[in-house]
Amino acid sequence: MTFSRILAAFAVLLMASPALAAEGEQYEPESHEWSFSSPVFGTFDPDELQRGFQVYQEVCAACHALGQMSIRNLGEAGGPFYDPDYPNPNNNEVVRQIAAQYIIEDGPDEFGEMFERAGVPADRFPSPYPNQQAARASNGGAYPPDLSLIVKARGGGAEYVRSLMLGYDYELPEDVTLRPGQYYNPYFPGGVLAMGPQLVDGRVSYTTREGQAEVEATPEQMAHDVTAFLTWASDPHAVERKRTGLAVMIFMLIFCGLLWFAYREVWANLEH
Fold it and tell me: Which residues of 227-253 are buried (b: 16+ CB within 10 A; e: fewer)?
């Protein structure tokens, strides 16, 4: 192949639509603006996290577990229901109320029997299914993944999760065949998945707490909010680490400055 043909082929690649991934017809996730995206100053909006948790509870929790998280994490610093009056999230009244909504299997008791009880903040979020086989049987053989680390586990991160939830309006290509119970979504690897569109107008009625502005629960808003929540869930201490990293960077800058002045002073004395 001549050099001119190589350049021509490269130009064709540059002019190709950036919305398509290199493999097949899988679309690249759409870029989106997030409050937490900055590696140093990014932070989570508590209102977004609260709304996102509501979307998770009312839309996602019926099929998807959040098994790597404890309910108490919701009330920790940086979490959606953090309250400085309750530094111990186990005492946070909102978190306690949320925990009590869950039924937890516990035991065995003194008679060797398992029993059910209301949840407490120290419990992990319970799975909607007793085991993987039951989960597959309820979803046509597909296994709904745990969402605790889904943002980190998927290439594209938050943008992928948001794009996937909003990606059901594309026309089905002629070369793609759907079986009963399957849906087309070009953001999903292979384009075919068992989860249908979940975010529709009216699916969630946002709870507006005191001091919060009313927000309309459009599919775009719900996708934004639940993705923010799942991003936080995948790394609840991210903001704390960013603040620590910023403090370390400031310290290192000051230290380097002092070291440079000390170096200048030492060598200035030696020259005389």
Answer: bbbbbbbbebebbeebeeeeeeeeeee
